Each structure stands twice: as structure tokens, then as C-alpha cells.
Amino acid sequence: MTDPKRIVDDAIDGAGDDEDSALEELVAGVVMGLIFLVGFGLLALGVSWFWIVFPVGFAGVLPAAIALVRIYESRRGGDAGESLTTETEDALETLRRRYATGELSEEEFEAKVERLLETETVADARKTAESRRTTREDEATEYERS
């Protein structure tokens, strides 16, 4: 997993990637809008210390919000990709072991490996499961008709 301290350091040093994600841009836009709204709202209300909102907002709140978004994205994206790869590798290793010990024939092994590689992502797995279910339902309907 990515270290949150490194993400914050990268944000400060500029060592991270230069492209901002859509979520970062959205959060930055919302935070800046709120900073301006509060600052100019206080100005309109005649509050003499309205200007404090700008340095606090732009030097404190905005960088903190961006850092939190980066931490969120690294945890969300990093874990999902790692666990999917690990699960696929574990399943493939299990299939290889079963084939090597003779539990699976060559045809069974090839079919299972093909099915495993077809469903590398969750979306692929859902598509495959849906198509199999539809095929089984069609076969059951045809069997009932005959």
C-alpha cells in the first residue's frame, strides 16, 4: 500500500505525477469556490478580518483537501489492483499445482485457465457470469419445449 506520508511529501515537493485526477480537480474547484464565497461573504457583511479566510483557505484548507484526495485515491486504487492480481496469481498457481499432481486433465486445465483469464476484472467476471446464466436459461427453456 502507498504510504500516506509519501503522498503528502510528493504533493509538497512536486515529485508526484503532474496530472491531476478528475476528483482532485473537482475537490479543488469546490474548495476554492467555498473560500471565495466565505471571504467575499464576510467582506459584504462588513467583517474587518475577512482577508484571513484567503491565506487560511489557500495555504491550509486547499492543500489539505488535495492531500486527502490523493490518500483516498491511492488506498482505493492501489488495494483493488493488488488484491485482484494476487487472487488471479493464486488461482493460477492452484490450477498449475492441481494439473501437476494429476487432479486435472489437460483439457480441464486449459478450460479453467481460459475461464480464469477471461475474468481478470470484476466487469469481465460479471459479463461472463451473465452470459453463462443466459445460456443456461435458454437451454432450460428449449429442453422444456421438447
TrEMBL record:
It comes from Haloferax gibbonsii (strain ATCC 33959 / DSM 4427 / JCM 8863 / NBRC 102184 / NCIMB 2188 / Ma 2.38). Residues 124-146 are annotated as: Disordered. Keywords: Membrane, Transmembrane, Transmembrane helix. Residues 90-117 form the SHOCT domain. It comes from the Archaea. The keyword Transmembrane applies. The chain crosses the membrane at residues 26-43, 49-69. InterPro entries: SHOCT. This is SHOCT domain-containing protein.
